[in-house]
């Protein structure tokens, strides 16, 4: 037997025999459901044989035969009734277990999210792609899907989605492009660090989505439920279907606040804040301004995360504010990083360490935040140093800036587009999907080993646009992405260490060293961050103006 658990009450398995019944009982099952009609296979035991063995073992047995590939809506409802009425836990079986898994998926469609259902069946080794539309439709067979068709469908209207739409329109204005995104507001997320440091107002970092969608691009204001890449289809909440010739996937990533016990309940109060949320960044500055003594903890979760420098940027700007007010000597700064290095590109570390020393911050590596008690002002970290047993430590705080754990969005992780870790699986140079050759991806959601930043998306968008146009012409990819990312490390008010790098930590400076030496803090880099980058974002990148972002050509060897 190969028993696969779907829920605490239901597991599925391929064909069982009468001789398996004792093992089924020993595993704790109290009931079985046979979903395989008698006589499908010459070596198949009849249900009567199974029922007799089950009765002898004290297990209740139910016969609900389903012809392979013909699971009806009524069958799913009957399966739900059966599992509800039978003593649990229940083991359902058919030839491979697929019919049983399908019945469960459809029966749960009204009460569980699509992502939860697909995650459970995927973990059990069953692909529910063939019934995903029915799952999205509450377990019922769709009668009117209302298909819409576009040349290109873009999933996600963040930095990458709007930028690539604009870049495509600048190359081929007649393209029929649709962007799918349910959000009303688009955020300039790199600005939130500056809000948390008292430099920007929150309003400077947001625009209405409708004002940013490129002219001539259709905006489908809806959430994606699932993909059918074999059918060139995207399924929206409500079971609407959008068809495409080519698709670009760029919905960003998920901030998994719930992964830290107690965090959601205390965010925005009790001294717990985060610059990773628009509404919390002002609270960061409020706490910094009000703090005169005590302990301030800044956390960083395991990689990958959006803008890996952001957690320490918050620390530096806070330390600078306390230094300017003359209270730094009374504040104990702790930087608790789940990783083992301050910054992934070693060339920038010496200059950063000077500021760590200036603010007298303690660097605690391999410290991963796992729980928070806001009212008690306590936090717990799992310390996982190499070759040592994990130790849980408790730390008190007066202020804590949290960078949350981050994953790919649920609907991506459970899809056929994802790699084993849940990220969209692309070729790191061309950003084309490794399996589906009419799909590309960019931004935080894809699995290329680059930094997840808006600066990276700015370079990726023209690469994807160029390669899609080449594909439309029947040619191979012409542009390549070199892994470029940028992290303006705000080490003090008025100075920035401008980290620019590509794959493998290769230095990729945009400016002559005489103007901006990225390995040193400079006022020129601060001017770039404060005054130049926001308009470059709003008026350049999102408008398809590829300033300093022309795609790098693939050179034949």
Features:
single chain; alpha/beta; Protein-Tyrosine Phosphatase, Chain A; FAD/NAD(P)-binding domain; 3 domains; 28 strands
Give a verbal description of the structure.
There is one protein chain. The strands form 8 sheets. Strands 6, 7, 10, 11, 12, 13 and 24 form a 7-stranded mixed sheet that branches. This protein is α/β, with parallel strands linked by helices. The two termini are 52 Å apart. The protein contains 15 helices and 28 strands. Helix 3 (73-85) packs across helix 4 and helix 7 packs parallel to helix 14. The chain has 3 domains: 4-136, Protein tyrosine phosphatase superfamily (Protein-Tyrosine Phosphatase, Chain A); 149-253 and 408-553, FAD/NAD(P)-binding domain (3-Layer(bba) Sandwich), CATH 3.50.50; 257-405, FAD/NAD(P)-binding domain (3-Layer(bba) Sandwich), CATH 3.50.50. The protein is globular, with a radius of gyration of 27 Å.
Derived from helix and strand composition plus strand pairing, the structural class reads: alpha/beta
The CATH architecture name of the largest domain reads 3-Layer(bba) Sandwich
Give the mean pLDDT. 93
CA gyration radius, whole angstroms: 27 Å
Low-confidence runs of at least 5 consecutive residues: none
CATH homology superfamily of the largest domain:
FAD/NAD(P)-binding domain
The CATH top-level class label of the largest domain: Alpha Beta
The percentage of residues in β strands lies in 15-25%
Number of helices: 15
Question: Into how many domains do the coordinates divide?
Answer: 3
| CATH topological fold name of the largest domain | FAD/NAD(P)-binding domain
């Amino acid at each position: 037997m190969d028993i696969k658990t779907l829920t605490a009450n239901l597991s599925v398995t391929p064909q069982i025999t009468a001789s398996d019944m004792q093992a089924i009982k020993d595993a704790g099952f109290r009931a079985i459901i046979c979903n395989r009609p008698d006589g499908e296979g010459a070596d198949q035991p009849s249900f009567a044989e199974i029922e007799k063995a089950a009765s002898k073992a004290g297990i209740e047995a139910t016969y609900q035969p389903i012809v392979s590939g013909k699971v009806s809506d009524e069958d799913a409802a009957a399966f739900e009734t059966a599992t509800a009425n039978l003593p649990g836990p229940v083991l359902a079986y058919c030839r491979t277990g697929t019919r049983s898994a399908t019945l469960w998926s459809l029966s749960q469609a009204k009460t569980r999210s699509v992502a939860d259902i697909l995650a459970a069946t995927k973990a059990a080794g069953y692909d529910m792609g063939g019934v995903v539309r029915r799952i999205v439709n509450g377990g019922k067979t769709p009668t009117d899907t209302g298909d819409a068709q576009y040349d290109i469908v873009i999933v996600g209207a963040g930095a990458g989605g709007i930028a690539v739409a604009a870049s495509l329109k600048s190359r081929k204005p007649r393209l029929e492009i649709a962007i799918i995104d349910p959000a009303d507001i688009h955020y300039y997320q790199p600005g939130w660090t500056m809000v948390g440091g008292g430099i920007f107002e929150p309003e400077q970092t947001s625009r209405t989505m409708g004002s940013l969608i490129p002219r001539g691009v259709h905006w489908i204001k809806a959430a994606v439920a699932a993909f059918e890449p074999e059918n060139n289809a995207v399924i929206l909440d409500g079971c609407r279907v959008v068809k495409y010739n080519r698709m670009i996937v760029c919905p960003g990533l998920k901030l998994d606040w719930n992964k830290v016990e107690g965090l959601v309940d205390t965010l925005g109060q009790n001294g717990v804040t985060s610059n990773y949320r628009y509404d919390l960044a002002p609270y960061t500055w409020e706490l910094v301004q009000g703090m005169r003594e005590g302990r301030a903890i800044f956390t960083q979760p395991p990689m990958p995360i959006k803008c890996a420098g952001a957690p320490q940027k918050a620390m530096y700007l806070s330390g600078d504010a306390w230094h300017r007010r003359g209270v730094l000597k009374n504040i104990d700064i702790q930087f608790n990083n789940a990783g083992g290095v301050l910054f992934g590109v070693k060339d920038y570390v010496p200059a950063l360490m000077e500021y760590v020393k200036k603010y007298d911050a303690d660097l605690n590596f391999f410290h991963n935040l796992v729980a928070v008690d806001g009212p008690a002002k306590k936090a717990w970290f799992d310390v996982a140093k190499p070759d040592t047993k994990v130790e849980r430590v408790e730390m008190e705080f007066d202020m804590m800036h949290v960078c949350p754990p981050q994953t790919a969005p649920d609907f991506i992780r459970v899809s056929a587009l994802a790699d084993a870790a849940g990220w969209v699986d692309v070729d790191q140079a061309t950003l084309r999907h490794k399996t589906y050759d009419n799909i590309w991806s960019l931004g935080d959601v894809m699995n290329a080993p680059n930094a997840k930043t808006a600066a990276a998306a700015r370079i990726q968008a023209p690469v994807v646009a160029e390669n899609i146009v080449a594909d439309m012409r029947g040619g191979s990819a012409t542009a390549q992405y070199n892994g470029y990312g940028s992290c303006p490390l705000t080490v003090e008010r008025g100075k920035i260490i401008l980290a620019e790098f590509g794959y493998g930590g290769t230095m990729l400076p945009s400016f002559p060293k005489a103007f901006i030496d990225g390995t040193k803090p400079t006022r020129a880099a601060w001017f770039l961050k404060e005054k130049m980058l926001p308009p470059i974002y709003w008026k350049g990148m999102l408008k398809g103006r590829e300033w300093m972002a022309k795609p790098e050509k693939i050179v034949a060897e």
